[in-house]
Amino acid sequence: MKPIRMLIVEDNPALLAGLEEQYREIFTRRGRAVAIELAGSVDKARSLAKQARDCPYDLVSLDINLGDSGLTGLDVLDTLHRFQSAWMVALLTGVETDETLDATMGQTKADSLRRRLRRDAFARFPAERLLVVEKPSATLAIEDAGKLLANRLEQIALVYEEISRQRYIFRPLEVTSLERVPKPKGSKEPRKFIETTSLHWQIRFNCGPIRTLPNLAGFRTLHYLLSLDPADSVTPEHALVIEPKAEKVSGNAGATSDPVAEYFTAQGIPWNGLPADDQEELIRAALSLKFNRYCELRGYQDEDDLSAEEEAELNRIVRELGPLADSAETAYQRMIPGESKPEVVFDGGAGALAQQELNPMGGNYERDANRWGKDSPAAVLFRARMKRVKDCLRENGFQDLAKHLEDYVMPNRANWSYNPPEGVEWTT
């Protein structure tokens, strides 16, 4: 059953218990495993909203008049948005027709709240994920009011099922623009423009906003992985078919498109004429001054113990290494002793549990009984692309998505697969 985590905010204890029972019945009938938390006051609701930052609610049913003379459900709504702790909010309120509001906060403030309710609500939370639903009038017979409320809760559930599909988005977007055609210097011909298209990516993770990023090498491969069934996987070689490589990784590849070859050729070293062993020796020599510190900082990073100053230092070293950064990373990965990891220690995450015999070193390896084999060129390129993708996502405010990819896009021997936790479904 698909999970759904809810928060119900209502100050009437009897109605709160009734809402919990009805929501649970509605979503269970729809094949959902329901977890519900309850709040009967503004303070309790705001406290729960702040605590839910790392595990947002899928749906919040929120009353406006919570019996507080100074604060209302709109203040809870504001907290939910600031902490990105709810995907969808349904304002289930009778405030627009409730005369008891006057006694709680005074007629002037109550009238202002009634007039401005919808405008203020949509100013505090994304409109496409906010639903305003009126409670049945207190003048209705109890039986009629109950039927009407049940019908409106069903409507809330239907809307949730529709918009929940837009929570995790990673999809391509073609953008059309005009580009000026170059003309010979000094030419008096009129300027000519041609229509061109470029690829961009619309991305949203969890409860954050949608952002559009320009295309980056690795996005197509990631898009393919996110689109796969959890039982499927991709090899680094197949990834090159999906997104043909633009760089070389073999030590004796041509210098015209190999940044490492260009790096040494620019220093007057005849790279293409050297044997592979000499090329590797040159790379080791070029890395020697910075490699020890790089490995030390990468170790801290893997242990999630990197300070802000050390992170800045690591980024600076990567920039200074330039095209040799991928070689440094490959060497670092190979330094992790295979004998110290005879068995994989799972962290309990759904992605790890879904993959047996996980290769912790992350690549396309040949394995014999005693040691890990050599990384394949395609695997080096695949991992380098994934690292650039995650760096790009972090730079553009998608830190949570980058961490998610590190946890759930994993190698299993020579193949890579995506095994998200239950409830994460991408629109690709």
Describe the structure.
By secondary structure, the protein is of the alpha/beta class. It has two domains: 2-166, Rossmann fold (3-Layer(aba) Sandwich); 229-427, no CATH class. It is 44% helix and 17% strand. It contains 15 helices and eleven strands. The protein has a five-stranded parallel beta sheet with strand order 2-1-3-4-5, with helices on both faces. The chain has a four-stranded mixed beta sheet with strand order 8-7-6-11, covered by helices on one side. Strands 9-10 form a two-stranded antiparallel ribbon. A hairpin with a 2-residue loop joins strand 9 (409-412) and strand 10. The longest helix has 27 residues, at 276-302. The chain is elongated. It starts with a strand and ends with a strand. Residues 248-257 and 338-373 have low confidence and may be disordered.
Key traits:
2 domains; 11 strands; 15 helices; Rossmann fold; 4-stranded mixed beta sheet; single chain; 5-stranded parallel beta sheet; alpha/beta; 428 residues; 44% helix
SSE inventory with pairings:
Elements: E1 2-9, H1 13-29, E2 32-39, H2 42-51, E3 57-62, H3 73-82, E4 86-93, H4 101-105, H5 107-124, E5 130-134, H6 142-163, E6 168-180, E7 193-204, E8 211-214, H7 219-227, H8 236-242, H9 259-265, H10 276-302, H11 308-321, H12 325-335, H13 350-353, H14 377-395, H15 399-408, E9 409-412, E10 415-418, E11 426-427
Parallel strand pairs: 1-2, 1-3, 3-4, 4-5, 6-11
Antiparallel strand pairs: 6-7, 7-8, 9-10
